[in-house]
């Protein structure tokens, strides 16, 4: 499932299982091995928000991959989620409702690909029988949305810079930030700006002559 697209196939490699074994060991440890408990209210809120965003993004992507039979990217998404959770385990998000939500999402999505291990981990974490009888996890677009995005700045259609902006930045602010960034200034200096085209959430194109 992980090695290649199911509809294209590929050469069998007996060594290919090693990476999956390492992933399953890491997933096992992520779910069952205890981590540190940290305090700090402001840090906790930020850590919870970051973890929940990644979890809801993973559910959204995993759902799309499963519906498209893209099993290789489906498993890669599980690996990425597990890595995120291992990092979060060392933050104040550990031992919170957000952590429990992450564990449940990981196991529910692990179940189709690794049914036996998912069932074992589901039982060991005290959840009701059985993981294969549970509803598929759902995501919240508001939770999954990025707080900051990289806005591409173009001058006459060529990428000249990128600026970090809030995901809900308005067009006026996006236009101003694009015109003020260093990469754009170098290429518009001494030229006439004819118009500024803003594609919300993606890019700003400055047309000059």
Can you tell me about this structure?
This protein starts with 16 loop residues before the first helix and ends with a strand. Helix 2 (41-67) runs antiparallel to helix 3 (71-88) and helix 2 (41-67) packs parallel to helix 4 (97-110). Strand 3 and strand 4 (203-208) form a beta hairpin. The protein folds into two domains: 14-144, Isoleucyl-tRNA Synthetase, Domain 1 (Orthogonal Bundle); 148-208, Ubiquitin-like (UB roll) (Roll). The protein has 209 residues and is α+β, with helices and mostly antiparallel strands. The protein is elongated and about 70 Å long. The longest helix is centred in the first third of the chain and has 27 residues, at 41-67. It is built from eight helices and four strands, in the order ααααααββααββ. The model has no long low-confidence stretch (mean pLDDT 92). The protein has a four-stranded mixed sheet with strand order 2-1-4-3, covered by helices on one side.
Quick overview:
The protein has helices at 17-32, 41-67, 71-88, 97-110, 115-124, 141-144, 171-180, 182-188; strands at residues 148-155, 158-166, 193-199, 203-208. The protein has 209 residues and is an alpha+beta fold.
């Amino acid at each position: 499932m992980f090695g290649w697209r199911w509809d294209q196939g590929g050469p069998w490699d007996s060594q290919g299982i090693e990476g999956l074994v390492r992933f399953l060991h890491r997933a096992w440890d992520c779910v069952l091995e205890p981590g540190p408990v940290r305090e700090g209210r402001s840090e906790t809120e930020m850590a919870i928000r970051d973890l929940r965003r990644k979890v809801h993004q993973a559910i959204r992507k995993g759902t799309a991959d499963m519906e498209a039979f893209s099993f290789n990217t489906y498993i890669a998404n599980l690996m990425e989620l597990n890595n995120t959770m291992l990092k979060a385990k060392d933050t104040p998000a550990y031992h919170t409702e957000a952590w429990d939500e992450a564990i449940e999402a990981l196991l529910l999505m692990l179940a189709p690909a690794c049914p036996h291990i998912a069932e074992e981990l589901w039982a060991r974490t005290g959840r009701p029988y059985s993981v294969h009888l549970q509803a598929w996890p759902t995501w919240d677009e508001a939770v999954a949305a990025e707080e900051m995005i990289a806005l591409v700045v173009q001058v006459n259609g060529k990428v000249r810079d990128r600026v970090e902006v809030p995901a809900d930045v308005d067009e006026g602010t996006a236009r101003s930030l694009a015109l003020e960034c260093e990469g754009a200034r170098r290429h518009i200096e001494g030229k006439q700006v004819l118009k500024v085209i803003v594609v919300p959430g993606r890019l700003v194109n400055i047309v000059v002559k």
